[in-house]
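Subject: Protein record for review, amino acid sequence with backbone structure tokens
Why sent: The fold of this protein is of interest and is recorded here as tokens.
Enclosed: The protein record, placed directly beneath this head.
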Amino acid sequence: MAEPPPPVELQPQAKTVQELAATNRNEVPERYICKGDNGGVLDDSFPVLDVPTIDFGLLASSTAGGEELEKLRSALSSCGCIQAINNGITSAFLDELREVARQFFALPMEEKKKYSREIGSTEGYGNDMILSEHQTLDWTDRLYLILSPEDKRTLKFWPENPEAFRGILHEYSMKLQVVAEVLLKAMARSLNLEENCFLHQYGDQATLQARFNLYPICPRPDLVLGVKPHADGSAITMLLQDKEVEGLQILKDDQWVSVPIIPQALLINVGDQVEIMSNGIFKSPLHRVVTNSERERITLAVFCIPHPDQEIEPVDELITEARPRSYKKVKDYVSIYFQYYQKGRRPIEAALL
């Protein structure tokens, strides 16, 4: 996989989307309006996707859960995502996490800007990295933090206000590492593979990256997306949805469908790197976020990403005459991700044989 040159960010946006939304309630700047394949005019009614609900209590047992494993395999090879319930994280804890996220985004702008990201970097508070004059911008502000390994955390970007923020996020990162291990083992077992084969490629130096997302009220949800269509460059992604406001959509059978909210569940989707490991059996779904003219929406996505030096390739046992090898061996996959994303292309194209 040829490595592209590192991205060069142009002048960053002068205002956050939250500031734009507060100062102009009737229109949006031209740079946020979707064009062509990024969306065009957006309808306001979409069918709802019946995302399979998977009981992690059953998956965690290496002897039980045959029916649950079959549900998992079927879900990840069709829509590429699941609602993970009984995941070892209480509803009360998830609500605490939602609350500190809400409190952070409600802080005065000068307080939030203490954590602003640096030009050319994603970590910290801000919005889209601008790589081209023609780039369509997302209607969202973000706080992007590396959770693990712990020695990779940049604490100057970790809010000290609200006071509980750091402790809760640290605890959440510990819990998610357990969820990721249970899932990667169950994925392998669902394909009748040795249970550590995906986990071995994922590696013991994997990175967890958190992205808190604020989608402010948008006056033109018919023209503007919260996030452009993309698939994730991770191995897996775990999303804590807003408890009340929907917005996530997945492309299934060439149609955009809405993902419903289950407040106590984590919505987990396959990323490109697991699609590669599974030789295309598990699907990394194309998804986007629509905007809302009445209510803001706050979510927390955590991306589980193999170490850049970790080599990722299809598991040998999944390469057969009937299903020949589809992908090259890749590493540092995420390095090309943002450039492809801002051009509206899928980085997995670069990994195809």
Observations:
- The radius of gyration is 20 Å.
- The longest helix spans residues 165-190.
- The mean pLDDT is 90.
